[in-house]
From TrEMBL, chains A, B:
Gene that this polypeptide is encoded by: asd
Residues that bind NADP(+): T13, G14, A15, V16, R41, S42, S160, G161, N327
Protein's recorded name: Aspartate-semialdehyde dehydrogenase
EC id: 1.2.1.11
Residues binding phosphate, per UniProt: R101
Length: 360, 360
């Protein structure tokens, strides 16, 4: 009988953590035991895994003894502190935060795109940013056949990407405008656009062209994540990527308006076929039937939906498309569990001897 | 004493018409009388102009006798039918519908950009599509200094662009989700994405990549309007323009993520200065202060707000920006009244002798 794993979920009570539990329930991974970890504040809570009651425990440096796979989604600082202890304890870490993504010893993986990057892992594998993941699923089939010269992307991102507090803030603001007839510009804002930034703005009936804080080049960190992570995942520094990341009043599922230029001319019918045949991608593209991806229909699904595929009106190698996926599933929980499944399939769930990450 | 005008507003009871009346109240145009016209259904309604009660009348072929300027915003079919009678009666028509925009005898005007096109008018002047107008105000100062090679635009458009019924539908759907806990994908949709199309989809907590119906090339009419109108307004068929037009759950003000390539390298500081100095444009761009345009702060204002201006990360002549304006003011009512003001200033409010448009 093949080995069965002890799987830890760090940040089990959060929006992504709870979905990781659901994805593990439906997973092909042979699971012996699930261990739920969170902050001291959430310890003692009872959550279900396959109708079984599990008690949430406080994450400590000792929590990972006997753990084979640890899924982290409790914020960058929690990963920074505890992931190295998990590796030291013999676990393989799949980290859903940005903390290790650009670390040269950490593979950054979208299984449909670069599963082979897992083969040389050093105990920690990073799950890319939600907005990057769905773009990779949509573009990899095109890159494989026609090459990829450049990407210009404008996002329409859901508030759930900023956490439970951002969802609550959005719903409260919308109620104040719709029920209490407040002017949208006058509702109280305390979370968005970025929890850690100085100023906060309403999201209800608004579009905020800031996700995460600004970097020195006047792009935001979210925008630079899309640029840097794309180059790392596709293992090609020459792909030009510029992003404009925007938050809109949607709860679940990110939408993206993507423009690409391919290296060779890509006939639209072949692009559509490539996407339709790519694992994890679903082609929804029929203007005559008004068929295109939508946030409300993508929510709750693990696939990435692609439509509105059409030639640029002028650039011979230019193509536009509309890409939608559930930011908490393929954008986070599902991609993490899928990485764990792929590690298992490739025989890569094993202790790491040469510890590359500092214990702090 | 200079002449004072009789000004007719056709579609006076609509969202744009009511704003035209407000813009006329604040206008520098010498106004003798305002005449309010609408459908038979709205006739008899009392509206205010400068604290004066005015009764709405039914639009007929005879309504324009004695009218000097007629502002039309009652739908393309109303303009098609009545605008030629208004011209025949001696009025100058400013038409806010798409009906005459691409007609070779009709100037398509954003006063800050191409007021000179008014000089050869033949009785009808067209007001461009809302999404085009604000893009023109943002890009013309750049075009003047650095030339314009191409434009790639993704829009974030408010539901008010689809009329009062779309606003009501949006608010109802949002209430059903927020108050009645309905799943966003299950709310009743009867109007959006396009009143005249077969299928309708929810807009609450959604982003719909369809505005107006699809054309044969898989772009929507809204997207093709941005392409064709830009070339006509800037009087340059060589500018490459491809658009992706998206409706989001915002009531007022369109936002646009615009990428351009200039003909000569445009230093960002000079681009910002050009926009700041351009009439009708307001620069809101300071990442260190999280200053950028927003729909909720642009609503109710006549200006076009521009920010997030930054170099593309790879293309030497590539620039990204974020452009926001009130779609019912600069996008419709204000641009129309501003055209009327400009006609007056240039001495162009006069009867047209050579009638170019068919009476039907």
């Amino acid at each position: 009988m093949s080995k069965e794993y002890v799987v830890a979920v760090v940040g089990a009570t959060g929006a992504v953590g709870s979905r990781m539990i659901k994805m593990l329930e439906a997973s092909s991974l042979p699971i012996k035991e699930v261990k739920l970890l969170a902050t001291h504040r959430s310890a003692g809570k009872i959550l279900q895994f396959k109708s079984q009651d599990l008690t949430v425990e406080t994450t400590t440096e000792q929590s990972f003894e006997g753990v084979d796979i640890a899924l982290f989604s409790a914020g960058g600082s929690v990963s920074a502190k505890f992931a190295p202890y998990a590796v030291k304890s013999g676990a393989v870490v799949v980290d859903n935060t940005s903390n290790f993504r650009m670390h040269s010893d950490v593979p950054l993986v979208v299984p449909e795109v670069n599963a082979q990057a897992l083969d040389t892992h050093n105990g920690i594998i990073a799950c890319p940013n939600c907005s990057t993941i769905q773009m990779m699923v949509a573009l990899e089939p095109i890159r494989q056949q026609f090459g990829l010269e450049r990407i210009i992307v404008s996002t329409y991102q859901a508030v759930s990407g900023a956490g439970a507090k951002a969802i609550a803030e959005t719903e409260r603001q919308i109620q104040e405008v719709v029920n209490d007839k407040k002017d949208p510009k006058d509702v109280l804002a305390e979370i968005l656009p970025a929890g850690g930034d100085k100023k906060h703005y309403p999201i209800a009936f608004n579009a905020l062209p800031q996700i995460d804080v600004f970097t020195e080049n006047d792009y935001t960190y979210e925008e630079m994540k899309m640029t840097k992570e794309t180059k790392k995942i596709m293992a090609d520094d020459t792909i030009a990527v510029s992003a404009t990341c925007v938050r809109i009043p949607v709860i679940l599922a990110h939408s993206e308006s993507i423009y690409i230029e391919t290296k060779t001319v890509a006939p639209i019918a072949e692009v559509k076929a490539a996407i339709a045949n790519f694992p994890g991608a679903v082609l929804q593209d029929d203007p005559s039937q008004q068929l295109y991806p939508q946030a409300v229909t993508a929510a709750g699904h693990r696939e990435t939906f692609v439509g509105r595929i059409r030639k640029d009106l002028d650039a011979e190698k230019g193509i536009h498309m509309w890409v939608v996926s559930d930011n908490l599933l393929k954008g986070a929980a599902w991609n993490s569990v899928q990485i764990a499944e792929t590690l298992h399939e490739r025989g890569l769930v094993r202790p790491t001897k040469d510890l590359k990450f500092d214990l702090i």
